[in-house]
Design goal:
Two copies of one chain form a homodimer. Helices cover about 45% and strands about 20% of the residues of chain A. By secondary structure, the first copy, chain A, is of the alpha/beta class. The first copy, chain A, has a five-stranded mixed sheet with strand order 3-2-1-4-5. In chain A, α6 (about 155-170) packs antiparallel against α8 and α6 (about 155-170) packs antiparallel against α10. The longest helix of chain A has 19 residues, at about 45-60. The first copy, chain A, is globular, with a radius of gyration of 22 Å. Chain A starts with 5 loop residues before the first strand and ends with a helix. The interface between A and B is large, with 36 and 36 residues. Chains A, B: InterPro entries: ATPase_BadF, ATPase_NBD, Euk-type_GlcNAc_Kinase. Chains A, B: Pfam families: BcrAD_BadFG. Chains A, B: It comes from Microbacterium bandirmense.
Chain lengths: ~325, ~325
């Protein structure tokens, strides 16, 4: 029997969950993926299933049991403040877990997926958009992350929403023509018509009906269309997204450091990134951009810390290299 | 028994419904108010109750029966295209109605509440925002009215949404300070605290939670706060609303004419109106602004037309004067 401490870092997201099984030196022993893991968006039962699914898969690959795990760190949005962890703790205990469960912010896991430095920044622009400043290994400043209705400026939702509005305003005559319109219509299975009602094309009424029939957050699904076009409207939306992300980062900037970048909007090179850097100007000096795919490695770094270890650059490197054998 | 044709014009809205009983010369015989009358937002049963309530009240004041009414015109948003009028027709018939029921757009009723001219414009900015161009007494151009998620730029929702975003960005540090923030906090029963979590004030988290707990459209309720403040952020929001409304109007402008104005945003003098006129510049020449309170008179004008009459300026004047005895 192996008595070295084994740890699990969980990156629980709104659409999927990743679990990384590691020893306390950052050697990845197993890795698993599960379903939706955020209890706020998915509900506690479904979220627990998503997390457990990822955990079971990681343990199975390693041939280990949950009873051997000393620390589980679950990184997810919005769970740190709630304090009520029974939805997950009870399920883990039922499967033999006797160790310590703790929660961390998803953005802190993103940060530690790309940096082991005590000071730096993480900026995520996926469906939502949020920035944190990390000091002494803890979050001490936050910008945006205010959700689709109140913030998330420069996020995938923000881009998709801007695309939808540009398309309906084009069809409506209150906005400029854009090639995005045909893409948005095609995305919704609609074609242009010559039918007009009270001066409006029929496809506008149909498109508006379809867009209101889905939850607003699904507008984020339109975001890729802006990256496939290069007319003035599409380019303008992407440039504005970059400017918003730069302004959000600027609100927490307090000196040079690593800037870990999560989410697909800013991770890729192109118009958003260019506008982002142009807007930052001199403030971009001393920021080292480090795109990361997800927060699994960072959650494992936080599990090492929870177990009393020091998640330094060597452990980050080891986790980053050793996880690659599993995914 | 009186054999002159009597008509009912109904202005059915999302929060209340007005019914105007008139003869074919525009003499108001009765007037009643009922509850929510739009079947799309209230559901058909509740909407029918709202409409019937207004109709019964108008008939009761005049001492008349529904069986005596030859034409009912119901003006409401979104009902012209649907064609399915059983939700209201069946209820009217059950109370003795044997005449002709027809539907018109709410904005056309707004227009005819302020003008009898064949050509002109109606611009409504209440919770939503929409403009129509009227030609030969029919709508032949429409701008915006695309709803809170996709349009309604310059509406009460748009203003309230801008206020909410300004407040959370102030608290978040990603936007400028504004006196609106204390008003928004007070509006939600919150006070400022010195508690910070990850660099954020506790009241931000509470405010965001409360704002997401209600349907987005309720943000329109914050709009009055901008009219009570005069700092740069509040003034900027109102000026931008005026610019949006001017741009929406510009999309359908095709020469001088009456501009009937509905909804509280542009009806009052002040920063929105000033920015609106400044943005229009020379294009405002030849536009006669005519604020109206609701669409009841216009719905009655449309009922006169439905009955084969000509709703001219004399009938508009008679309706406008004679209704005042009832409300």
């Amino acid at each position: 029997m192996n008595h070295e401490p084994i740890l699990i870092g969980i990156d629980a997201g709104g659409t999927s969950t990743r679990a990384l099984l590691t020893d306390d030196r950052g050697q990845c022993l197993g890795y698993g993926v599960g379903g939706r893991g955020n209890p706020i968006s998915a509900g506690p039962d479904l979220a627990a299933e998503g997390v457990l699914g990822a955990v079971r898969a990681a343990l199975a690959i390693a041939g280990r049991e949950l009873s051997e795990v000393s620390h589980v760190v679950a990184a997810m949005a919005g769970m740190r403040a709630s304090g009520d962890d029974a939805w997950l703790r009870d399920r883990l205990v039922a499967e033999g877990f006797t160790g310590v469960l703790s929660f961390e912010a998803d953005l802190l896991a993103t940060y530690f997926s790309g940096s082991a430095a005590d000071f730096g920044y993480a900026l995520v622009s996926g469906t939502g958009a949020c920035v944190i400043r990390v000091r002494a290994g803890r979050i001490d400043g936050t910008g945006d992350g205010l959700g689709w209705l109140l913030g998330d400026r420069g996020s995938g939702f923000w881009i998709g929403h801007s695309i939808a509005r540009a398309a309906v305003q084009d069809l409506d005559g209150t906005g400029p023509r854009t090639a995005l319109t045909d893409r948005v219509l095609a995305h919704h299975g609609l074609a242009r018509t010559v039918q007009r009602r009270e001066g409006r094309p029929d496809e506008l009424e149909r498109l508006v009906g379809l867009l209101y029939a889905s939850p607003p957050i699904e507008l984020a699904g339109l975001a890729p269309l802006a990256f496939e076009e290069s007319d003035a409207v599409a380019s303008g939306i992407l440039a504005e997204a970059g400017i918003h992300l730069a302004d959000t980062l600027s609100a927490v900037l307090a000196g040079p450091g690593p800037l870990v970048v999560g989410g697909s909007v800013l991770s890729r090179t192109g118009p958003v990134r260019e506008a982002f850097l142009a807007r930052l100007g001199e403030r971009a000096e001393g920021l080292e951009l480090r795109p990361v795919g997800d927060g699994a490695v960072g959650a494992a770094m936080l599990a090492v810390r929870a177990a009393g270890g020091t998640p330094d650059a060597a452990i980050l490197d080891r986790l980053t290299v050793s996880i690659s054998a599993f995914r």
